[in-house]
Specification:
11 helices; alpha+beta; binds ligand EPS; Chorismate synthase, AroC fold; 4-stranded antiparallel β-sheet; single chain
Length: about 375
């Protein structure tokens, strides 16, 4: 399976085409819309989210809600549509790049003088399409008992040490939260951190943990570097705008631990098969899933568009000038978690299809059952 996305932040629409998705999978547009809504709302989001009402149109690839095996095209129209493909929009040239955004690096790379021609595509609005693709994948993965969920574990200088025991605990606790947290006490402080950044015209980042449960052992590969599941997951999560670090399992903590206390000892019982007492490896060993929950963590930087804007340089005059103050979010950590869940869903779907075939759900299910028979 592969997919391509298209669309500018203030263009007519954002869209994606998924190729190589199996035949015979039931896809509900309402479940895609549910994910889109989760991406839009979130404590700290800006005014654009009050304008948009993201709803997917599934343009091709389905008949009577069932995939045909043909390319699936998903499209979301932008309500705040002000740039056009065939006529002039009359928007003023933006000549001052925002530090931290793609503005200057993009202008240099593409020999561009107008920052708008870069920011329209680099905007995180593009992640609408990835959430659509991920929401299609989540519906496929549900048929294999794979669940994906996330929680915010830090905002700015506030962090929570609460550790969930299972994905069910994450789903239950975040369901009652205003900020997709599992720690109600720390959540209050995180909300205050976002409010304080807003009052000061500043922005704030944070940390999100993303889990997948029910992933069978054997996805990914040890045989070649680019087939390693941990490498692939890291690349997919790192591709989300504002993500600057990815950890799997104990991640950076491994560096300070001895081998004797860090590796997950192996046990066997007739009912559970192979199992581990701990999951420091985050469900992946040697680039292959080992049957334990996949545990990942992402660090999200503060949004680069500030009300109290930073020092920059005018691209055309080369004179010092403050970055423009434009409408923006204060904190996108919660939404980044939704996007990360969906990127993980895409990655796991691709890896599952690599192992069990990709033409039809029927064939994949047969191969899946046969694999487990050969294991026991
Ligand atoms: C976004 C839409 C954008 C921003 C945000 C994400 O809308 P606008 O630029 O019209 O206000 O709110 O973009 C960024 C975070 C970014 O860095 O570009 C969205 O739909 O998620």
């Amino acid at each position: 399976m592969r997919f391509l996305t298209a669309g500018e932040s203030h263009g007519q629409a954002v869209s994606a085409i998924i190729e190589g998705f199996p035949k015979g999978v039931k896809i509900e547009a309402s479940l895609i819309n549910k994910e889109l809504k989760k991406r839009m709302v979130g404590f700290g989001r800006g005014k654009r989210m009050g304008i948009e009402h993201d709803r997917v149109e599934i343009v091709s690839g389905l008949r009577n809600k069932i995939t045909l095996g043909s390319p699936i095209c998903v499209l979301v129209k932008n309500k705040d549509h002000k740039i056009f493909t065939q006529k002039k929009d009359g928007l003023k040239i933006l000549a001052v790049p925002r530090p931290g955004h793609a503005d200057l690096a993009g202008c240099l790379k593409y020999c561009e003088q107008d920052v708008r021609n870069i920011l329209e595509r680099s905007s995180a609005r593009e992640t609408v399409t990835r959430v659509c693709v991920g929401a299609v994948c989540k519906q496929f993965l549900a048929g294999f008992n794979i669940k994906i969920s996330s929680f915010v574990s830090g905002v700015g200088k506030i962090s929570s040490a609460a550790r969930p025991k299972s994905i069910e605990e994450i789903i239950k606790k975040t369901g009652k939260s205003k900020l997709n947290c599992i720690d109600s006490e720390k959540e209050k402080l995180m909300i205050e951190e976002i409010n304080s950044a807003r009052r000061l015209g500043d922005t704030v980042g944070g940390i999100v943990e993303v889990w997948a449960s029910g992933v069978c052992a054997g996805l990914g590969s040890v045989m070649h570097f680019d087939k390693r599941l941990d490498a692939k997951i890291s690349a997919y999560l790192m591709s989300i705008p504002s993500v600057k670090a990815v950890e799997i399992g104990a991640g950076f903590k491994y560096a300070g631990l001895r081998g004797s206390v860090s590796h997950d000892t192996i046990h066997f019982s007739a009912d559970k098969g192979f199992w581990r007492k701990s999951n420091n490896c985050g469900g992946i060993e040697g680039g292959i899933s080992n049957g334990e929950p996949i545990v990942t963590r992402i660090a999200v930087k503060p949004i680069p568009t500030l009300k109290d804007s930073l020092i920059s340089v005018n691209i055309s005059t080369k004179k010092k000038q403050k970055a423009p103050v434009v409408r923006s979010d204060v904190c996108v950590v919660e939404s980044a978690g939704v996007i990360a869940e969906n990127m993980l869903a895409i990655c796991l779907t691709e890896s599952l299809l690599d192992k069990f075939g990709s033409d039809s759900l029927k064939e994949i299910k047969n191969n899946f059952r046969y694999y487990f028979k050969t294991l026991s």
